[in-house]
Amino acid sequence: MRLLSVRLIVALILGMALVSLSSAYYQVLVGQRGLRKDLERRAEVLGESLAGNVERDLEKGSMHALERIVERFGNREHLVGIAIYDQQNNPVVATPDLASILTVTPQIVPQAMRENRGIGVFQKLGAAHLHIYVVPLHGTEEDGAVIGSLAIVHDTGYIPAEARHIWRETFLSALVYVLLITVITLLIVRWSIAGPIARTAQWMRALRTGMVSSRQNAPDLQLFRPLAREVATLAESLNQARSAAENEARLREASVSLWTADRLAVHVQTRLDGGRLLVVSNREPYMHVRQGKSWQVVVPPSGLVTALEPVLRACDGTWIAHGSGDADALTVDQHDRLRVPPDDPRYALRRVWLTKNEEEGYYYGFANEGLWPLCHIAHTRPIFRASDWEQYQIVNHKFADAVLEEIEDVTTPVILLQDYHFALLPRLIKQRRPDARVAIFWHIPWPNPEAFGICPWQRELLDGLLGADLIGFHIQSHCNNFLQTVDRALESRIDGEHFSVRRLGHLTVVKPFPISVDFAEEKPVEEGELSEVIDRAALLKTLSTDAAFIGLGVDRVDYTKGILERFAAIERFLDTYPNYQGQFTFVQIGAPSRTHIKRYHDLFNEMEAEAERINWRFQTDTWKPIVLLKRQHNHDEIQDYYRIADLCLVTSLHDGMNLVAKEFLAARRDERGVLVLSRFTGAARELQDALLVNPYDIDQTAEAIRVALEMSPEEVQERMRRLRKVVREYNVYRWAGSLIGDLCEIRLDVEQSIHEKSDPLVPVA
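Below the sequence we write its predicted structure tokens.
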């Protein structure tokens, strides 16, 4: 630290000395320029004021009057004198002191008369430094001809003297500032820098030895924000590494084999065998949006992001997605790539740009007004437009081009395509890179053949999907529906025993892969661990309600989520069991979604109106039954609600999996809380210890709320423990490991070129 202080002092002195000299020099230049301008201005004013009288007397030839004028202005401050010249540039009369200086007529005199304007010049005559200003004189005749000139001569010797004075004063002032700044800086170093650095070193030493957690006793590093972020990231990495090692030791001791991020990384690296993993989705994991004159990073709420983020972190792969943020283009390189996450870059994000028409037709139109309601049994009529289908094809080709660019120099690429936005993409990739291993995971349900047959382009979609080597769904019934749909719509050979389809010489395997969440393997929270105890009363205060029991719903506002049915069940519950009025509050986190689609806009208004109606019926001055939070919430905010809820209601009318149910279970380290789950979700197949309900049966759901609230603590804990065990063992790392592992085990039929096959869309006989 002493060496740092010495270096800092020397650097400060040298730096401030340089700044002082530069400042003094600048002040001298500014001062000299100001004095010159002032002198020029005074000369012009004097010349203009004298010109009228001199012109009259010169034209009359009144030498006596001219001499009087010259004598009167011969002894002013810095004024050497004035001289009057005739039309032939000969001196007529001049101040006596000028005779020895202006031995010849200055060149500026004829120039001023020739150009017929006032001219000033700084020049040196002999040992004298002068400023000469010449103004032409005009006759009183109509033509106003030039009859002579008036020269005003100032001594400029005082300007260098004044500059030396400015230099001396400025330098001395700067020297004093140098000394003061040096002393103040040393005090700041001693009090504000040396102390925090010492405390940081002590904290990191304790962290390294495991005496503190990365989240505890963090030093105050406000003066070093970039360093603070890096130190926090390093601390978190050390903590994660230690936790992973401890967890691995516990699992080894218990002879339990669980999937972790580290295990997934090793598994994928082994399976890829030098290849490269790419994930393609519509939604990007990190979005950059404008905020005033700057931009901020936003993590979009998405079950897909929740599921795939840990996979990409573990594998250091590439995520290709639509760049939808209004500041996304400002953060990418020349290849439209950037490293993410921003605070701890682990993988590459490649952004694909779409026009407004493309996004409107492909995403909002064909995908979300067509395929989404088609695949969900939620009684919303799908809308199919030819213009939307055209944009869907264009966008799939754009993403295909991006994928092919990313794998151009990759010998064994492994590509995971995500969801119903990219049904055509597997075939487009395989046509140009048959050596690539391609899987597509369909995150939403697959309906029965009769329902899917509503789509006018079902055969094109099926043919595009069958370009993949592996197609994944959440549950087996969705796989069965898909195979039955292919059997009815396309000419192909289906192997029901091995769940595969052979079409045009290409084999596609169809399997279920139940998706999950990242389950942090930690010890159960103890009563005394205040860092994990959420202040329930404070959180309720922010919601402007008081309640003994809290229910929770977390959804993107969508007609498939059963939010209106959920509200109806809450109303029925309060009607049937009035003793819970004033005691039970349901918090609905409703993230707005696709609101410029009319069905979603109407649903949002219906949800608001229904919540207001129910609140109007039951609320008091200090309590209301439903708290509707109509904005996006980040992961940490939602975790707080998960941890205080007595029950979580997941009442989807139809859902591929529903990760909210699993996120709720993963968050409950205290092994409390009850999950009420729709039997029409994929998660219901795994989470049998939840209270399973038919969301259309309002009375059944209302009764499930009562059962959840009155369940004994022992049963609550036992159910939660078994549910958490399922999520723990079948976590997102196992999902990714199984999907990638099965994809890498499939034998590719590279020798058979797809281009040699017949038209894939020949009508079925």
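The CA atoms of residues 297 and 342 lie 8 Å apart.
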